[in-house]
Amino acid sequence: MPKRLPIADILTGLARSMGTAVRYWLHYTLVALAWLGVVPLTACRIYRCLFTGSVSSVLTLPLDMLSTDNLVSDIFHGCFVVTCTLSAFISLVWLREQILHGGGPDWLDQDVQHEHEPPGNFGLLNQGNGQVPVQPPHDDAAAAPPIEEVNDNAAEVIDDPLHHEVAPVPANPNIPEGWLVD
User: Fold this and answer.
1) Alpha-carbon Rg of the chain, whole angstroms?
2) What count of Cα atoms within 13 Å lies in the side-chain half-sphere of residue 82?
3) Average of per-residue pLDDT values in the chain
4) Which of 82, 83, 89, 128 could staple 158 via S-S, CB 3.0–4.6 A?
5) Rounded Cα gap, residues 106 and 1, in angstroms
6) Which residues are CB-contacts of 133 (< 8 A; sequence separation ≥ 6)?
7) How many CA atoms lie within 13 A of 100 on its CB side?
8) Whether residue 95 has pLDDT greater than 60
9) pLDDT tens for residues 4-55?
């Protein structure tokens, strides 16, 4: 091991470190300029072009992209457009994942006709779990039983274990056959 380092090696290492720092600085500056300048400006001008309602705005879009009129305000409006678009996209992806993994909300299953319920029953058997019964409309008011009579019988049906229904789990196309054990 030498007692001291040659000056050429020190200068070479310093120049290499400075080159790396300049490269990173240039890269991050261009990324920031693109996301905080070019993307919002493009989004705002395309948004304005699409929602003006004239064909001439579509034809002059390439020239409008290079225009320096209202540059700062267009960038701010474009940041708003990009933020709203990304938020909507992320929210919809999140909602899709919630529905796929946790099942849909209960209000989506209201129109499902269960096989042990007669047609037109509209969930009268589900009164025991806090749901409000809905009486189907009838032409003859005397033929329709009042809700009170149905309330007395609903508790008996719900307590019977043979009438309990388990909702089927929807098939997930991402899980191959044979991975689930029944």
Assistant:
1) 33
2) 18
3) 77
4) 128
5) 75
6) 122, 123, 124, 127, 147, 150, 151, 154
7) 10
8) yes
9) 888 999 999 999 999 999 999 999 999 999 999 999 999 999 998 888 888 8
Separation between Cα atoms, residue 74 and residue 65, nearest integer Å: 11
CB of 73 closer than 8 Å to CB of 44: no
Q: How far apart are CA 71 and CA 141, in angstroms?
A: 70
Query: Could you give the residue ranges of the DSSP H alpha helices within the chain?
Result: 7-33, 39-50, 55-59, 61-65, 71-102, 147-159
Token pair in block for residue 78: 């474009």
Question: What's the burial of 181, exposed, middle or buried (CB within 10 Å: 0-12/13-18/19+)?
Answer: exposed
Instruction: List Cβ neighbours of 168 (8 Å cut-off, separation of 6 or more).
Output: none
Q: What is the pTM of this model?
A: 0.48
Q: And the tokens for 57?
A: 């705005």
Rounded CA gap, 145 and 149, in Å? 7
